[in-house]
Amino acid sequence: MKPFFTFLLLTLIMLTGKLSAGEVPPENYEELTYRLYLEQKWDSLLHTGEKAIAEGCDYYYMRARVGVAAYELGKFVRASRHLEKACEFNSGDPFATGLLYRAYVYSGRAEEARRFQKGLPDYLAESTGGWSLNPVLYLEAGPSLTNHQDRFQQNRQQGSGLYSEAYLNKYSVYSVAGGIIPLSGRLTLNAAGAWLDFARTRHVDISGLDTLVSDYHVRQVEGYLSSSVYIGKHLRLSPAFRIVQVSYKNRMQSSDPVVQQLIGPGGSWSYYDRAMGGEVAWLNPYWELSAGYWSLESDRNKISQLGSTLILRPLGNLNFYTATTLFRLQKEEKSNAVITQMAGGRIVGRLWAELWFSSGDLSGGTEGNLQVFYNAYDRVRSRYGARFIYAVNDYLKFSLRSQLFTKEGSELFYSGPEIGKIHTYDYHTLTITGGLSWNIK
């Protein structure tokens, strides 16, 4: 009997211990996170919810609440990870779907948002607001002012000379209109047209014969086409093409046939500049790395460009971001490197700003996968720029951009019959453009 009572006593002790332990309930994460959600205490909700998930309390409502907390705190990448899991638990819920879409957009992943939205059934796609699948129309226009003529007069060659010739900028006007058209979740087209008008002056001095000054215009009509093809979740291929028609008139005339032969025949002239190439990019919530190659023809000169851009979003949103671009231009036997650094982010409310500078000769090169083509022949030494963006809503944005270029002017000067040199000097050009971006409903 004694062994029996010993066994019974041990059994009662074990049961009593279990019952006692069961009387102390674990922390009620469901009730606590729901209360924090109702009280909108997002910091506490994010911390408590992620702790609950780590301890195994992982289900739809928990993930949705934690996703909302991260979203409200502006931690959009973090929010997207929780909302992705919430959508796995309940793929038919419009609340988590719509919020996940916005988390993609506000963390700078518009392409991922577009692909996500395209894969949704119609009733869920409506919960996202739908703007990423709509065409985007963009317009930009403005003038460019310069002190080129003043700097030429200050630095032109003095003394005896047989022949002098210089081409000077007066002002220019720039305008562009285009659209970004999503054809599917994995294919987007970007098409644009641009019109540029450069007012210029040609100076020719011929010792003992004549001094001529002629104003004229160089006009450019440009067409641009690019596509973006998304492969998987991280890879983007973007081929691009640009064509530029350049036209001008030689209005300089002289009654002296010898002078006319020196300055060239009058009349209208037109030719085409071309550029083609593309880039491949690897996409990540916090950074993007792209590399590209472009073949360019500018003023009948063949140029090749190889470059790479790194975009960083260290906060996982668009409140602060940077872009660093490095490329090399090969012009016949010469090559030069250009580096551009940009930093941008939110200033206050719906107002954003970007600041940038570049060092190196941009002439003959391109930026933004052929969105900008510097086919003018004046060398660029440096550039500083700023842009302010005001987002009226998710569909309409206005911008104001200013850029200051330090360029190199030149004068062809012959001091003797066969002694000719090109003399250079610096001048500045200021461009101011205003624009809008409208995501058409």
Account of the 3D structure:
With 441 residues, the protein is an alpha+beta fold. It folds into two domains: 20-133, Tetratricopeptide repeat domain (Serine Threonine Protein Phosphatase 5, Tetratricopeptide repeat), CATH 1.25.40; 136-439, Outer membrane protein transport protein (OMPP1/FadL/TodX) (Porin), CATH 2.40.160.60. It is built from ten helices and 16 strands. The strands form two sheets. Strands 1, 2, 3, 4, 5, 6, 7, 8, 9, 10, 11, 14, 15 and 16 form a 14-stranded antiparallel beta sheet that branches. The N and C termini lie far apart (87 Å). Residues 1-26 have low confidence and may be disordered.
Q: What proportion strand?
A: over 45%
Please estimate the helix content.
25-40%
Low-confidence stretches: 1-26
Instruction: Give the name of the CATH architecture of the largest domain.
Output: Beta Barrel
* CATH class label of the largest domain: Mainly Beta
DSSP E strands, number: 16
Estimated radius of gyration: 32 Å
Number of domains: 2
Main beta-sheet strand count, sense and barrel state: 14 strands, antiparallel
| Mean pLDDT score | 86
- What is the assigned CATH homologous superfamily of the largest domain? Outer membrane protein transport protein (OMPP1/FadL/TodX)
What is the element string, with H for helices and E for strands?
A: HHHHHHHHEHEEEEHEEEEEEEEEEE
Counting H and I runs of at least 4 residues, what is the number of helices? Answer: 10
Give the structural class.
alpha+beta
